[in-house]
Amino acid sequence: MLEIRDLHASYGQGDVLHGISLDVPGGELTALIGANGAGKSTLMKTISGLMKPTRGAVRYEGRDIGGLGAERIVRLGLALVPEGRKVFAPLTVAENLEMGAFQFLMRRDTQRCRSRLDFVLALFPKLEERLAQPAGTLSGGEQQMLAIGRALMSDPKLLLLDEPSMGLAPLIVRQIFQTLSELAAQGMTVFVCEQNSEVTLRHARTGHVLESGRLVLSGRASELVADSRVKEAYLGV
Ligand code: ATP
Predict the structure, then answer these.
(1) What is the CATH number of domain 1-74+158-237?
(2) Quick one: pLDDT at residue 237?
(3) What is the ipTM, given to two decimal places?
(4) Of 94, 95, 129, 176, which is least packed with CB atoms within 10 Å of its CB?
């Protein structure tokens, strides 16, 4: 579904990603593990059109999307849940969700918008109770649900998540990964970047380890979680 080949990205002074190549197969949860500053957010921003690659290809369903604008990429069916959630705090939960469906609202497709809202509220019933509440008053876990819900409003085929576990209690993190697994089981493609490697690898089929902008290990997630190098570096064992 997503093929990344020899991808380089930079903020101006030298590359931060040094030739990443990996595949994200359709209908599965794929994990990218890395410490602070490894380049996870840079990779997510480059895939979702917020940054242009300096070299290499990002192919989505066979088409090179590297360098396309973020809005085009959303329309093609990719949605990013950004690091730190980035919900619009003064806006209500309902308004935040609507922003995720702007492409349907722009063409006045209120039916599609309504059906996406029904889907999101069935997935996160807590959000339904809070639709009229400003997003800034939600708990961290609820804000993460809202950020995921907002991304799902665009009806993506590929959901990208940048550190969804950040700052959340372990129980909430497990619930979020359970939901992501359910989405993958329904056929959605899910690509998660995380520092929290154990819970991520336990829910993923394939995993990759990123260090200083380079992939250093790739394999079945169940094998990576047992790999002594991963245990030492990322699981604190
Ligand atoms: P974190 O978990 O801390 O967000 P990360 O793995 O997502 O880490 P990135 O945010 O992609 O890492 O950062 C990779 C490298 O790029 C780091 O060395 C970082 O300092 C640098 N970097 C990130 N954003 C910028 C920016 N806007 N301008 C310049 N350098 C940046």
Answers:
(1) 3.40.50.300
(2) 53
(3) 0.92
(4) 129
